[in-house]
Request: fold
Amino acid sequence: MKSVPSEFGSLVFDDRVMKASLPGKIYASLRKTIDEGAQLDISVANAVAEAMKEWALSKGATHFTHWFQPLTGITAEKHDSFISPSPDGGVIMEFSGKELIKGEPDASSFPSGGLRATFEARGYTAWDPTSYAFIKGKTLCIPTAFCSYGGHALDKKTPLLRSMEALNKQALRILRLFGNDTAKCVRSSVGPEQEYFLITKEMYDARPDLRYCGRTLFGARPSKGQEMDDHYFGVIKPRVAAYMEELNEELWKLGILAKTEHNEVAPAQHELAPIYTTTNVATDHNQLTMEIMQKVAARHGLVCLLHEKPFAGVNGSGKHNNWSIATDAGQNLLSPGETPYENAQFLLFLCAVIKAVDDYQDLLRISVATAGNDHRLGANEAPPAVVSIFLGDELNAVLEAIETDTPYEGVEKTQMKLGVSVLPRFNRDTTDRNRTSPFAFTGNKFEFRMLGSSNSIACANIMLNSAVAESLKIYADRLEGADDFETALHDMIRKTIRDHKRIIFNGNGYDSAWISEAEKRGLLNYRTTADCMPHLLDRKNVDMLTSHKVFTVEELRSRCDIMLENYCKTVVIEANTMIDMAKTQIAPAVRHYAAVVAKDAAAKLKFDATVPCGHEKKLVSRLSILGEDIAEKTDALEAAMIDLQNAGDIIPESEAIRDKVLPVMSALRVACDEAETMTAKDLWPFPTYGDILFSVK
Ligand code: ADP
Ligand code: MG
Reply:
């Protein structure tokens, strides 16, 4: 790579390129669309398309695509070339404003949850000018939203943009009440920390479960796991370092601010964190990051596992969604201010988040629900499925003082009684760290840690933005009508603390005592996707999300169906893979080894009938029992899969997956994992956890 500054963003049609290549008037008009959501004129689109095409051709591109994020969770693209026949029999390179603004991919194979009748295969993609176009390979990629012929959103971007708009609208109302007349817009920003495992391609290829499911379905604990924690922040191995270097270069060229990288707690686990940016762009960037992580790994003979729980008993991979809200002038609304007045505004936004997280715990849980993440939540070093907020001692003391009208004994001893002028000043640097909380305040942002590593961050941010918009709306409605602003404000902050303090938990979220305590507090504990997903359609959730125009009722219904379908399909593939591996690899290996041992013992006895061989007998007996057990559990799993076909609707099907299929899968695994620990390694049909986790040298 040449110098980083010269290469950074070199494959992005970003502001620098737009400014340089567009006529001044066109540029100004486009900026207005990007910054303020102004309607885009077709003449502007034509000029932008022309400049985009010229720029893309100069970078060697031959094709363009509308790049979108259907509900599969990954990105989709359909490539069209720029070529257009010319009357003289040759071709010219063309790209019109119409092609930039709107695309019509054949959308029939993307999930729609019934929103698009099969005869109506058309879907539309619409340019999202707030996310820059970029080049991947020889293709100009245009970030777009994706909707059905009837106008229903079929993607993750559309509701995300709508939720940002809802938050913007309500947050501006609050800012005006605090006398801020200059802010033009408020946006949420996100910095997603991405965890992943890196293993060698040889190991990956040797395991059908990794190839088909992205996670291991069998595997006994290795003798050395993560007990020593010696991997965490340890020296990065040369092969991994080479991978990270190339990954960074690729990301930088795409304008993605990959910033830190380090080893994580588990062996073979690593993390990449970008510098935060506007949620919409951060979401696009995170999707691209995941794609490029896998591509670059392939070039290094490695495989990047993005599954949230590739190895049982070893830390899973999460994605920490660092979230804050800021004005266009750069004021972070979750940053404690310098003056009491600013602090009052900060406390109000803080309360809005507390109320949102408590009122919509279920939506946050739903936003991270997948079959894969169900294995991670509540397991090794991952937050539980219960949502709670960590605030740290100082903020907690401030809120307690407000709640009880007692003096605040913090940095400055202040009486916390009346209006804003006496709300305390506090120092944000004193916020302590808590790594076990699902939703932690970290000084000037919240870190939502329940996301699984393969999740699109869109879902979590849609729910977060919308729920906070709802709190702010309730606050604004009350404050706009208040006779005495300061008293009303103080009362509202206090009421929020009183009503919602149950969601605040500053202790150890990994402790099992917390789960029972949380249940006593009335907090929700939806352990699985099947438990939580149907609540997407609860009245209060539908009312909130539709009132802010983030989703229509039909869109919510379709999403609930698609997510449950996804859950069922994932587990069905896993169950079938398990059956196959158990029958054709594990059972034969166990039988074979038992026969080998028996044969050895028989030979020994033949040689000398007095030779002790109690050990062989015990081993053969145990292996035979396990062999029977494996066969029985495999049969039971097959039977459960057949029963599943009669489940009928998607909700009973997902319940059958949870209650009938997953437990049998666990039982089958236990038998197989025990057999692994007793079978000669050279007869075991695939690499063990130890082989895989320590495969990259
Ligand atoms: P860690 O959580 O590992 O201590 P940092 O606090 O430095 O790391 O940041 C983690 C992520 O949070 C980074 O992606 C960073 O860009 C992002 N971040 C920092 N400030 C904000 C903010 N105001 N809003 C959103 N994300 C932020
Ligand atoms: Mg973090």
